[in-house]
Amino acid sequence: MSDDKSAKLIILFLVAVMLLNYPLMGIFDRRQFQFGIPLIYCYLFGVWALLVLFIGLAVQNRNRRKIR
Amino acid sequence: MPLGLVIGLALAYISLLFFIAWWIDKRSVEGKRLFINNPYVYALSMAVYCTAWTFFGSVGRAATGGLSFLAIYLGPTLFMPLWYMLLQKMVLISKNQHITSIADFISARYSKSQSLAVMVTIMAVFGIVPYISLQLKAVTFGINTLTHFGEKTPANSLNVLTDSGFWVAIAMTIFTAVFGTRKLDPNERHEGMVAAIAFESIVKLLVFIAVGVFVTFFLFSGPGDLFTQAMAHPQTAKLFTLEDAGVTPLAWNLLCLLSLLAIIVLPRQFHISVVENTATRHIPRAIWVFPLYLLLINIFVFPLALAGKMLFDPNVNPDTYVLSLPMSQGANWLALLVFIGGFSAATSMVVVEATALSIMFSNHIVVPLMIKTRTWSTEHRLVDGAARLLDIRRICILVVMALSYWYGHAVGHNLDLVSVGLISFTAVAQLAPSLIGGMYWKRPTRAGALAGMSVGFIIWAFCLPLPNMAQAGILPSDFIENGLFGVSFLRPDALFGLEGLDPVTHAAFWSLLLNTLTYGLVSVFTQPSMLTLTQADIFVNIHKYIDGQEAEILKREAKVTDLRIILNRFLGEHRTEILLSEYETANGISLRDQKIARADLVNFAETYLAGAIGAASARLVMDSIVKEEVITLDEVMSILQQTKEAVDHSRMMESKNEELKELTRQLTEANEQLKHLDRLKADFITTVTHELRTPVTSIKSLSRIILDYNDELDKEQRSEYLSIIATESDRISRLINQVLDIGKIQSQTDSIQFREINLTDLVVRAVSGIRPLCLEKNVNLVFSQRFQSLSSDNQPPVMVMADWDKMMQVLVNLLSNALKFCNQADGRVEVDMHTNNNQVCVCVRDNGDGIDASGQDMIFEKFTQLHSREQGKPQGTGLGLYISRMIVEKHAGTLTVRSEPGAGAAFEFSLPVI
Asked: In the prediction, which pLDDT does B516 show?
């Protein structure tokens, strides 16, 4: 595994830990609606989806390049 | 809904799973590995993480705790980037070490310790039993809800035979026993099972999304409607923020931590993601597909909980909402599907977990006991070992399931699904420090791991299951109120006075903290064994060992026949034959000719045996037949000697290399010198011929004039010409003599005849010889003061070893040079002599123009003559100084010049005094 990739993954992990934990998460823990959906619900699932996307990009891009 | 229909459907579904597993195994044997060697199958099988707890319990949890249930899925999700690296390492280590369970993994890291393996197994069994009981309970719930919907939930029957939970447990046990132990694979790979698990993951996901869509879009008109209604509803309004739902930041963070650790250390997760991994290249795909799966299966949990809470009265158990919601709308077909989904989640978990536990249980507890009590070696010699191992596995599964049923029946019936699950999470999380620490840090010792895990496990047991058991009336309950032994800070819900946390957060905090601290501290203060160090290096630097180059420190030997017997017993004769012939062909030897198996064969057999019965057991078995050759001091010394020789050798090579370099340098220099000499020789010849031609030309032309014009020349002219001819002839002969001199002096030393001579005499003679010339040229030739005192009669004569004639030649040359170059108007030449440290120096000084620095170097070369403006080209051949210097050097002396332009020149030669 390249150091570059490891660094990316570690940064991604740290960002995820920050976004999905207190105190940052507390900012969105409000009785508000966004798109007709509770704000915190929206926030958690939004971060979740982005995280999946970025993890996918971080671990799979090298393979795809290889195939091309 | 009739019970028969539900059971019939469940049986049909199980049959389908069997069919899938059978079909995949058949394809695997045929070599068609499309569905096996597939990253998506791998990723989906990881979703065994989502059990009946997820399926029924998340909704239940959301109905009381709002979105707090998400921590259990967000923990693993945010961990995925690191999991990618950790998992790859774990898979590589496991493949290298033939590891088949998490107990195996941890024990292999710490010197293949038997006690550690037993400990991990016990912890896993205790930790997981509540979790399995939870699955049984969920299925029982499901059946009861389907068959008795709308009625009052039947009280737990005292008669086990009428308790549907009992029959569920029986059915699950049979299912697991048949499913998980259909064949014995040395690597514990069950392709069929994995494929069936992946299939179940798809089923539970689709069903859950279906019920979510049904409730959100058919019962309500979309999520907006559902959320708005729930916001207005008094029962659900407080669920919209985590703060209102009573979730503390610490609880959330610890829940994240617990669940991310669970991904690593839950036996079923370890089994699926490490043991069943067929290729490391599947990991990148799984690392993002798995969190995506978690996202999808959770997206409707909150809406379902809100809907259930709004529609049903508070008496309805929220854990059953997923089933009750469609049933309340008369969508019985959907309810049946939901049941199958929950059943999928439960069966997949139970099958994998029970299989993983039975591998541990049999490999680390039953087999070692049998080996130690010798039952294995005395009885059943002819029984196929593989079949026996499978029987043991089945019995283990039965034990695990019986424990689970008992737990659920006795303790778990008054707990909700998620709480039971979290108790298990906290238990297995105690394995994490030793597991992860051992993969990145070499220092931890077996004692450290044992101590850390023990502390963690004791705190866990004291804080979570024991109070539950006490509440269920199995244990006396006064320690909950008053603390252990009446000590108030030993209360299980407020250990060391830490109050105000929910039980799981509290237990997780203390157990993990003290576990990690103990592990680290004990490791630092104890010494690791040799084997631990070796294993630690493999675990930490697995990339070094991937090619199978295991460092061999212990030399072990065993009889081939013993080895064969052992292998037969555990692997069966057929597999043993295959294995040994594999070894024979790989190493090009025949085992029939050999009595003693070498260390590599012993290791080879041990690693394969480890696949069947675990590393620690394999080591135990091997120890019974192996003679461990203790490495003697002599051997160590000889190894060291060899190393030393190698080092010496390389040093020698280095110095040889230096010598060669030096020689090359000398050769290059010599070559340069030769080239220089060659050039000098060419110059010499050119110069000599040129020098010869000049007088010859003048002699030739003058003599021709005399010959041709003899009559016309007057006497005066003729004699002038003749005198020139005579001078030029002299010059030629002098030149020739000098050239001959050079040749003589250069070629041989013996032309010089050394005798003891009085140098003072020599100088006086030479000076008196040259004095007439001086008078003629009006040059003042004097001896210096020092010379006069040195040559006075009362002084001892200065004696040197020299050739009289040659030295005379040198002196005459120096004196005549001085005469030639001294001041024309007022010439003065001084001869000086002094002794100094066994050296005698003779100096001839003139008062001429002197020689500049560049000229001082040149004058000793052949044929160099300095030109001065006043005199033009001086007479002479340009060989005098060259010859003089050569003569002096042959006498082991030196000839040098000191001069400054305008201040005269001093030529000085020195010779050793006798």
From this structure: 92
Angle between helices B3-30 and B114-147 (to 10 degrees): 140
Mind listing the pLDDT tens digit for each residue in B127-143? Answer: 888 888 888 888 888 88
**Tokens describing residue B782:** 């004097």
Report the gap between the CA of B27 and the closest CA in chain A (Å): 28
- Taking residues B551-575, report their average pLDDT: 71
Are B914 and B839 contacting, i.e. CB atoms less than 8 angstroms apart? no
CB-CB under 8 Å, A12 with B81: yes
Give B356's Cβ-side CA count (13 Å radius): 34
Chain B residue numbers with beta carbons less than 8 Å from the beta carbon of A10 are: 81-82
Chain A contacts in chain B segment 59-118 (CB below 8 A): 67, 70, 74, 77-82, 84-85, 88
Task: Determine if the peptide bond prior to B249 is cis (ω within 30°).
Answer: no
Nearest chain A CA: its distance from B292 CA (Å): 6
**What residue has token string 């108790």?**
B423
What backbone phi and psi angles, to 5 degrees, belong to B244? -65, -30
* pLDDT tens-digit series, residues B321-370: 888 888 888 778 888 888 888 888 888 888 888 888 888 888 888 888 87
Segment holding B912, helix H or strand E:
strand B905-912
Q: List strands edge to edge, sheet with B827-836.
A: B779-783, B827-836, B839-846, B905-912, B894-899
Q: Do B299 and A10 touch (CB under 8 A)?
A: no
CATH superfamily ID and name for B749-912: Histidine kinase-like ATPase, C-terminal domain (3.30.565.10)
Going by C-alpha positions, the residue among B591, B594, B620, B606 that lies closest to residue B552 is B606
Contact A58 B81 (CB under 8 A): yes
* Percent residues over pLDDT 90 in chain B: 8
- What is the homologous superfamily of the domain B3-27+36-378+385-534 according to CATH? Sodium/glucose cotransporter (1.20.1730.10)
Q: Cβ contact (<8 Å) for A58 and B285?
A: no
Higher pLDDT, A68 or B860: B860
Query: Which ipTM value was assigned to this complex?
Result: 0.91
* Total structural domains within chain A: 1
Angle (deg, nearest 10), helices B560-571 and B615-625: 150
Instruction: Give which of B80, B91, B228, B250 to mutate to test A binding, by max A Cβ within 10 Å.
Output: B80
Whole-model pTM: value is: 0.65
CA B85/CA B93 separation, integer angstroms? 12
**Mean local confidence (pLDDT), A11-40:** 83
Alpha helices in B181-318 (DSSP H): 191-213, 223-232, 249-265, 267-270, 283-298, 301-311
Q: What is the pLDDT of residues B436-464, one digit of tens each?
A: 998 888 888 889 999 999 999 999 988 88
Domain of A19, in residue numbers:
3-67
By residue count, chain B amounts to 914
Q: Parallel, antiparallel, or unpaired: how do β-strands B839-846 and B827-836 relate?
A: antiparallel
Q: Which of residues 15-44 of A touch B (CB under 8 A)?
A: 16-17, 20-23, 25-26, 29-31, 33, 36-38, 40-41, 44
Nearest CA in chain B to A21: B253
Q: Is B280 on the interface with A (CB under 8 A)?
A: no
Q: Please, what's the b/e burial string for B341-355 (b: 16 or more CB within 10 A of its CB; e: otherwise)?
A: bbbbbbbbbbbbbbb
CB contact, 8 Å: B221 with chain A?
A: no
Count Cβ atoms below 10 Å from residue B825 Cβ, excluding itself: 6
Question: Is A20 in Cβ contact with B256 (below 8 Å)?
Answer: yes
Q: Quote the distance between the C-alpha of residue B876 and its chain's center.
A: 81
Mean pLDDT of chain B: 81
Q: How far is B249 from chain A, CA to nearest CA, in Å?
A: 6
Structure confidence by residue, pLDDT tens digits, B378-392 = 444 445 566 777 888
